[in-house]
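Customer ticket, subject: "Can you confirm the structure for TonB-dependent receptor?"

Message body: Hello, I'm evaluating your service for our small team and ran a test protein. I'd like someone to confirm that this is what the system normally returns, since I don't have a reference to compare against.
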Amino acid sequence: MPEFKYAFLPALVIGCSLYTVAEANDAAGEIVVSALRTPVDSDRVSSSVTILDLEEIETEQPVAVTDILVRTPGISMSRNGGYGAATSLRIRGADAGQSVLVIDGMRLSDASTTDGGADFGNLFADDIERIEILRGPQSILWGSHAIGGVVNVVTASPSDPLEGRLTLEGGSRNTLNARAGVGGSGKAIDWRIAGSTFTTDGISARSNGTERDGYRRQSASGTLTARIASVLSLNLRGYYADGRNDFDGFAGDSRAYGLTQAWTAYAGVNAALLDGRFTNRLAVMESRTDRDNFDPDRSVRSQTFDAQGRGRRYEYQGGFALSDAVQFAFGGEREEQRMRTASPGNNTLPFTTTRAEADIDSVYVHARVSPTAGMTLEGGVRHDDHSRFGGNTVFSAGGSFVPWDGGTILRARYSEGFKAPSLYQLFTQYGSADLQPEHAKGWEAGVEQYLLDRRVSLSATYFERDSDNLIDFAYCPTTGTLPGECYIPGTGVERFGYYANIDESRARGVELAGSAQFGGWFARGNFSWIDAEDRSAGTTYGQQLPRVPRYLANGSFGYEAEDGYSASIALRYSGESRDRAGGVMLDDYLLTDLRAEVPVGAELSLYGRVENLFDSDYATANGYGTLGRSAYVGARARF
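Agent reply: Thanks for trying us out. I re-ran your input and got the following:
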């Protein structure tokens, strides 16, 4: 590997760690929900998993969920401006649309976006109690898009008859962020409702702009669990978010803005039979996202874009425990995707409207077996039938082994993933109905080691992933005879490009992590080397994939007193990356943050942070602005 621009970083990250499943909590007692969509002890999971609990989330003081995700191994992020702007998350170098987002068991996506994936730009840390990051292809249980991995977000659940929490903070650029949640737990019903509001003057979305592009957002969520009988329960969940973000044109400042509304509703019935050994869940979920863009400077029609994505899912999930050593998970799903997009060619032409739909029917089975003490083997298969391109089958197999007293955990896994073409890629004026699914095959092997009564932990993971049939935008030639693909299907109208299965990639890498805590003093950090190459024939062969830094590192040092006082310094390094295939290089950067918290009584604490302490100038996307030095103070209360 070439030398780092910041020579001290290798020593920083090899000796300390931030957030791995191993050191986050006691491995024998940790529960991973996302891995098998049912609770599983973490030492029986073959995949690489990171778990962030409420204490860790509050310590980091994130505004958006991506603020804390990028501090975990193997994850990079790019954003087209400040908060609320288009945000792309990449896990182990996988494309932005190749990761699945789940909130309280509800898989979120927007069928009207280019890649059909989830919107991480509007995902804030509202009433969140836990985040799990599952790395590597995960399509057996999570289906399409799960090539890079899964981000599973769990909101707060009540444990007392009446409880709540409130957070209020403000800071740079007239930023105000308020969150509140209240709920209760009884013999028959558990319930919780929460809401939040966020507003900021923001920064210029374009790096050459002079005026600020603001953002405001409101959200609400609710959950209810009713225990109808000793073996039967009902779950109702809902999520809503409404946002407005200002943005700039390619030339710089503009008065353009976008409105986004998204909601998701879930209803499920759970039945536990045979003394709880046979579990069943039958659920239906519907989500909808409406996006509208406007430009007040247009003389005839101010609306420039209109899109609506809708999805409905029907799910059955079963689980059967033959014994403590043999368990099965199985199920069937149907997903119905609907999309409508419209945009005018100019101020006077009518909207060009595209409507499209597709359905996916799926079945899967996954088995977990423990033949001897400390050893777990698992494997699964999934088959999906897409109404547009037909069937697809994927497999996985892996195992974990605790050879001694729990101080060491070994993991290894082979897995496959796929991503169905989005409706946008299939049916818009740039689409092709002949597209086939993207495919990925990957494996990983890792070890976790605990020392000195678990006050010190170390972990290392090596991974590889080969992807083919990747969908990318192919530009048409500007001279000579145009091939047939350069005409809108069924017409003689030329187009400047189209989506096609043209790319291949290979990713491999190492993720190192470790932590040490003695008394109140702690040091944590991680380092990721991600060699993600374009393997497509042509001039870009061998290049690092766009917006995937080859090197990522995080570290934090600080002191946490037993009475709640804490102070820490955190560093985040991102190596240089290419903005797009064959495009300009983005410089590497190092960001420094300071955080502190002071308790005021048993249920109230004051906290504050300074982000980008040295006001570093950096970019995650060429031509777009990033947040400079920012300071925030806040208060957190519970009852």
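A couple of notes from the result: The chain is about 5% helix and 55% strand. Residues 9-15 form the longest helix (7 residues). Feel free to reply with more questions.
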